[in-house]
Amino acid sequence: MVINSHYQFIFVHIPKSAGTSVMKSLSQLRGNNKRWLANTKHETLVDFDAQFESRKNLYDRVRGMNPRNYYRFGFVRNPWDRMSSFYRYLTEKQPRHEIMTISSFKDFLIKTEEGCDWIQTLHTMRPQIDYFTNTDGNLNIDFLGHFEFLQEDLELVGERIGCRIKLPHLNSSTNSKRDYRSEFDNEMIEIVARRFREDIAHFGYAFDNIQPSVRCSKALRRPRAL
Description:
The chain is an alpha/beta fold.
């Protein structure tokens, strides 16, 4: 998550949806407020709204600063493409030693559905929609962009917050030309469909189509704090 009190925005970081590249770009802007952040970069909006009051200092209280009214945006990605990218990251970077017990991408997905403990703790295995909803389950965000239209959607965000957002050079895992569809069989397709059924339903994704059938890249209505 990135919170900026100068441009008054909150960027919600979804793992494996180009979030690291966007965060690197946004971190160069003036006004980033790190004291409002949690220890994890993958905090949901529900968690942030619940914890913000305890993170404010005297200066924030005197100034009446209320980031709950800041412009909120984030990006989502095709769930099958995202899982393929995530598995490749796990095997290449090996941030968890447990990945050595996994024999293949299919084995990883099967163990995911079986409820393998260490896999369930990974932020990336959480549905993307969970990061953007409020306690009632409604979207609580102003702009929801797509990984598949990243540069185009970032330009729209930049126009709204009043600054130009320049992406750093994207690495191969973020800007790959590979076709994830060749990595799945029917069983694997269905496992991902069940795991991320809410993302698929809300964001217009399908296995056979890399791009979403519905563009969410527009202003969204959400309740404002008083």
